[in-house]
Each structure stands twice: as structure tokens, then as C-alpha cells.
Design goal:
The protein is an all-alpha fold. The protein has a single domain, classed as Four Helix Bundle (Hemerythrin (Met), subunit A) (Up-down Bundle), CATH 1.20.120.1630. Helix content is 69%, strand content 2%. The chain contains seven helices and two strands; from the N terminus they run H-E-H-H-E-H-H-H-H. It has helices at 2-33, 50-68, 77-105, 133-149, 152-180, 182-190, 199-206, and strands spanning 41-42, 114-115. Helix 2 runs parallel beside helix 4.
Amino acid sequence: MGPVVESVTRIAVAVAALSLAAIGLAELAREAVRSRPKPVRRDTGPLATVNFAGIGGFVLAGMGTALSMAGTIPLPGPAGMAARLLGLLVLATAGWLAAWGLRSIGRQLASPPEVRPDTVLVTHGAFGLVRHPLYLSILLLWAGGALALGSWLMAAGAVLLVPAFVARCRLEERLLVGHFGGAYLSYAARVPMLLPRPRGIRGRQAR
């Protein structure tokens, strides 16, 4: 059973990496051909590339690790199988969250941190769970891949990406507060940045 589960996890991580590459390229192509007003505010500093680093890094690390198993540790016995299965569950959750987030944001999706005259504040769907569901999905992919493959390299990548994405989120939110003012501050007070709150806590805070 162990070798079968390992094979399944390697295939799952490889499929996740290829799917992310395809979706990322499709979204970039769609942004390139879509007609929208010029940005009112845009940041082009180093934090503007964090999402590309997260996506491109996972594609390379995920495919490379799935094919070669380099940078991994053995996961024997029931504990190892549990870790692999948990990794698959996290990968599936990441895929679901990414699909939900893309559907929720629709035409408002933009790769660089920016606001445009037609930018709309999206607070429904996945954006009612956390303020940055697409970034959370990327972090979950790294964590799921690390668990599924026993990859210390991917685990290290996930740990390093967390503060980078938090900084990227704060940068975007400064732009959004400048554009939407109190509407965004009210939204941020209700919805967490990256870690979903238990429903009961969210309900009490809303009251």
C-alpha cells in the first residue's frame, strides 16, 4: 500500500504544478488582451513579484520533487501514510480555494498590486472567508506538497513565503484603503487576512 500511496501523491503534486502553470499563463494572457482603464495606483517594487515567485516556485519545486524525490525524507509506516494523505487533502483544498477565489474575483483579477478607476471591492464568495484567498491557496499548495512528498525543501519554501505574502497583502491593502477608504477598513474588520476564523468567532465579532 505504501508504494501505491507514494505514487499517487507524486502524480497529484505533478498535476497540481502543471495545472497551476496552465492557469497562471491563461490568466496572464487574459489580462494582456482585456481592455481596462489605466491604473490609478500601482506598485512595481519587489513585493509585486511575490505571487509570481510563489506560483513559479511551486511549479518548479513541485514538478522537480515529484519526478526525482530530491530533498525529501522517508515517510514510512502509518504516520507516513497519514502525512501523505493529509498532504493530498491540503492540495485538494488549495485547488478548491483557488477555483472559488478566481470565480469570485472574476474580471477584477490583476497580477500586480494596483487599483484602477473601474476596480470593484470584492467581498463575496471566497473573499468572505479571507481577504486574500488566492494567496492562501498558493501557500496551501506548498504545504500540501511538502506533506505529500515528505519534502523538507518545499516545507522551507512554504515557511519563507508566509512573511513574503503577508507583506504583499499589506501592500495591496494600503492601496485599497487609499482607494476605498472606510469601506475597505470595514471589510478588513470583518474578514481575516489569510487565516479563516471559526464561524462562531466571526459571528460574535460581526455583532
